[in-house]
Design a protein that fits this description.
mainly beta, Lipocalin, nine-stranded antiparallel beta sheet, 2 helices, 53% strand
Protein backbone atom coordinates (compact mmCIF):
# COMPACT_ATOMS: atom_id res chain seq x y z
CA UNK A 1 0.00 0.00 0.00
CA UNK A 2 2.84 2.42 0.84
CA UNK A 3 4.36 1.78 -2.58
CA UNK A 4 1.06 2.64 -4.30
CA UNK A 5 0.68 5.88 -2.32
CA UNK A 6 4.23 6.96 -3.07
CA UNK A 7 3.62 6.46 -6.80
CA UNK A 8 0.66 8.85 -6.79
CA UNK A 9 1.40 12.42 -7.94
CA UNK A 10 2.37 14.67 -5.05
CA UNK A 11 0.71 18.08 -4.94
CA UNK A 12 2.81 20.68 -3.18
CA UNK A 13 1.43 24.07 -2.27
CA UNK A 14 1.88 26.48 -5.18
CA UNK A 15 5.02 28.55 -4.80
CA UNK A 16 4.92 32.27 -5.54
CA UNK A 17 7.02 33.47 -8.49
CA UNK A 18 10.69 34.25 -7.89
CA UNK A 19 11.07 37.83 -6.65
CA UNK A 20 7.61 37.88 -5.06
CA UNK A 21 7.31 38.57 -1.36
CA UNK A 22 4.11 37.57 0.42
CA UNK A 23 3.30 39.55 3.55
CA UNK A 24 0.67 38.51 6.06
CA UNK A 25 -0.76 41.24 8.31
CA UNK A 26 -1.18 40.50 12.02
CA UNK A 27 -4.38 42.41 12.91
CA UNK A 28 -3.78 42.04 16.67
CA UNK A 29 -0.38 43.77 16.42
CA UNK A 30 -1.42 46.47 13.91
CA UNK A 31 -3.28 49.74 14.50
CA UNK A 32 -5.13 52.46 12.59
CA UNK A 33 -5.15 55.92 14.21
CA UNK A 34 -7.09 58.87 12.85
CA UNK A 35 -7.42 62.57 13.58
CA UNK A 36 -10.04 65.03 12.36
CA UNK A 37 -9.51 68.72 12.94
CA UNK A 38 -12.33 71.18 13.50
CA UNK A 39 -12.88 74.80 14.54
CA UNK A 40 -13.15 73.67 18.17
CA UNK A 41 -10.54 70.91 18.58
CA UNK A 42 -9.00 67.86 16.93
CA UNK A 43 -10.75 64.55 17.50
CA UNK A 44 -8.55 61.45 17.69
CA UNK A 45 -9.63 57.86 17.32
CA UNK A 46 -8.83 54.40 16.09
CA UNK A 47 -10.03 51.52 13.94
CA UNK A 48 -9.11 47.83 14.07
CA UNK A 49 -7.70 45.80 11.21
CA UNK A 50 -9.66 42.70 10.15
CA UNK A 51 -7.09 41.02 7.91
CA UNK A 52 -4.52 41.63 5.24
CA UNK A 53 -2.11 40.08 2.81
CA UNK A 54 0.12 41.62 0.21
CA UNK A 55 1.99 40.10 -2.73
CA UNK A 56 4.88 42.31 -3.85
CA UNK A 57 6.92 41.57 -6.96
CA UNK A 58 10.32 43.09 -6.26
CA UNK A 59 11.41 42.86 -9.91
CA UNK A 60 8.40 44.61 -11.52
CA UNK A 61 6.87 46.64 -8.67
CA UNK A 62 3.48 45.00 -9.22
CA UNK A 63 1.40 44.39 -6.12
CA UNK A 64 -1.82 42.63 -5.24
CA UNK A 65 -3.78 41.60 -2.18
CA UNK A 66 -5.80 43.65 0.25
CA UNK A 67 -5.77 45.21 3.68
CA UNK A 68 -9.17 45.26 5.38
CA UNK A 69 -10.16 47.57 8.25
CA UNK A 70 -13.32 47.03 10.30
CA UNK A 71 -15.38 50.22 9.80
CA UNK A 72 -17.65 49.21 12.69
CA UNK A 73 -14.68 49.36 15.10
CA UNK A 74 -14.24 53.15 14.72
CA UNK A 75 -13.86 54.70 18.14
CA UNK A 76 -13.17 58.27 19.29
CA UNK A 77 -13.85 57.71 22.98
CA UNK A 78 -17.17 59.61 22.89
CA UNK A 79 -20.25 57.39 22.56
CA UNK A 80 -22.61 60.00 21.08
CA UNK A 81 -20.00 61.20 18.56
CA UNK A 82 -19.18 57.59 17.62
CA UNK A 83 -22.86 56.75 17.17
CA UNK A 84 -23.23 59.72 14.79
CA UNK A 85 -20.02 58.72 12.95
CA UNK A 86 -21.27 55.16 12.39
CA UNK A 87 -24.89 56.02 11.59
CA UNK A 88 -24.58 59.21 9.54
CA UNK A 89 -21.04 59.44 8.15
CA UNK A 90 -19.57 55.96 7.67
CA UNK A 91 -22.92 54.13 7.60
CA UNK A 92 -20.87 51.22 8.92
CA UNK A 93 -23.94 48.99 9.30
CA UNK A 94 -24.12 48.95 5.49
CA UNK A 95 -20.42 49.48 4.66
CA UNK A 96 -18.64 47.37 7.27
CA UNK A 97 -15.25 47.18 5.52
CA UNK A 98 -12.69 49.77 4.49
CA UNK A 99 -10.33 48.10 2.00
CA UNK A 100 -7.07 49.04 0.31
CA UNK A 101 -6.07 46.96 -2.74
CA UNK A 102 -2.54 47.78 -3.94
CA UNK A 103 -1.60 47.44 -7.59
CA UNK A 104 1.97 48.76 -7.67
CA UNK A 105 4.89 49.83 -5.52
CA UNK A 106 7.27 52.60 -6.56
CA UNK A 107 10.72 52.55 -5.00
CA UNK A 108 13.19 49.86 -4.08
CA UNK A 109 12.06 47.06 -1.81
CA UNK A 110 15.08 45.73 0.04
CA UNK A 111 15.02 42.16 1.38
CA UNK A 112 16.61 43.25 4.68
CA UNK A 113 16.52 46.50 6.58
CA UNK A 114 14.48 49.67 6.22
CA UNK A 115 13.18 51.27 3.03
CA UNK A 116 10.58 53.81 1.87
CA UNK A 117 8.19 53.22 -1.02
CA UNK A 118 5.03 54.69 -2.55
CA UNK A 119 2.17 52.16 -2.66
CA UNK A 120 -0.55 52.89 -5.22
CA UNK A 121 -3.93 51.20 -5.28
CA UNK A 122 -7.68 51.47 -4.83
CA UNK A 123 -9.12 52.61 -1.51
CA UNK A 124 -12.68 51.31 -1.05
CA UNK A 125 -14.75 53.36 1.40
CA UNK A 126 -18.51 53.75 1.81
CA UNK A 127 -19.31 51.91 -1.44
CA UNK A 128 -16.89 53.89 -3.61
CA UNK A 129 -13.39 53.19 -4.87
CA UNK A 130 -10.73 55.90 -5.12
CA UNK A 131 -7.15 55.84 -6.37
CA UNK A 132 -4.67 56.58 -3.63
CA UNK A 133 -0.89 56.59 -3.30
CA UNK A 134 0.42 56.04 0.21
CA UNK A 135 4.00 56.71 1.35
CA UNK A 136 5.12 53.70 3.40
CA UNK A 137 8.19 53.24 5.58
CA UNK A 138 8.86 49.53 5.99
CA UNK A 139 11.41 47.14 7.39
CA UNK A 140 12.08 43.44 6.96
CA UNK A 141 13.72 41.52 9.79
CA UNK A 142 13.95 37.80 9.07
CA UNK A 143 10.45 36.40 8.80
CA UNK A 144 8.77 39.54 10.18
CA UNK A 145 7.98 42.96 8.76
CA UNK A 146 6.85 46.29 10.13
CA UNK A 147 5.52 49.33 8.31
CA UNK A 148 4.10 52.75 9.05
CA UNK A 149 2.26 55.22 6.87
CA UNK A 150 0.65 58.65 7.18
CA UNK A 151 -1.83 59.99 4.63
CA UNK A 152 -5.08 61.94 4.31
CA UNK A 153 -8.46 60.63 3.20
CA UNK A 154 -10.63 63.41 1.68
CA UNK A 155 -13.81 61.73 2.93
CA UNK A 156 -16.16 64.66 2.25
CA UNK A 157 -14.85 65.05 -1.33
CA UNK A 158 -15.42 61.29 -1.72
CA UNK A 159 -19.13 61.69 -0.93
CA UNK A 160 -19.38 60.97 2.78
CA UNK A 161 -21.55 63.23 4.89
CA UNK A 162 -19.93 66.25 6.51
CA UNK A 163 -20.28 65.76 10.30
CA UNK A 164 -19.99 69.50 10.93
CA UNK A 165 -22.82 71.95 11.46
CA UNK A 166 -23.43 75.71 11.49
CA UNK A 167 -21.24 76.18 14.58
CA UNK A 168 -18.71 73.40 14.09
CA UNK A 169 -16.65 73.28 10.89
CA UNK A 170 -14.55 70.16 10.29
CA UNK A 171 -11.64 69.54 7.93
CA UNK A 172 -12.62 67.88 4.67
CA UNK A 173 -9.90 65.24 5.12
CA UNK A 174 -9.18 62.90 7.98
CA UNK A 175 -5.53 62.20 8.85
CA UNK A 176 -4.71 58.49 8.94
CA UNK A 177 -1.70 56.87 10.58
CA UNK A 178 -1.03 53.16 10.19
CA UNK A 179 1.20 50.95 12.31
CA UNK A 180 1.39 47.49 10.77
CA UNK A 181 3.32 44.31 11.34
CA UNK A 182 3.14 40.71 10.34
CA UNK A 183 4.97 37.76 8.88
CA UNK A 184 7.03 37.46 5.72
CA UNK A 185 5.75 34.24 4.27
CA UNK A 186 8.46 33.79 1.65
CA UNK A 187 11.43 36.17 1.95
CA UNK A 188 12.99 37.10 -1.39
CA UNK A 189 16.56 36.13 -1.98
CA UNK A 190 19.09 38.88 -1.23
Amino acid sequence: MLLVLSALPQHAAPQPPAGEIVLGLDPAQSKVHWALGSTVHTVHGSFAFKKGNLHLDTSTGKARGEIVVDATSGNSGNDSRDKKMHKEVLESGQYADIVFRPDRVEGEITPRGAFTVQVHGLFALHGGEHELTIPVQAQFAGDHWTASAKFNVPFIDWGLKNPGNFFLKVNHAVEIELEMQGSVQNPASP
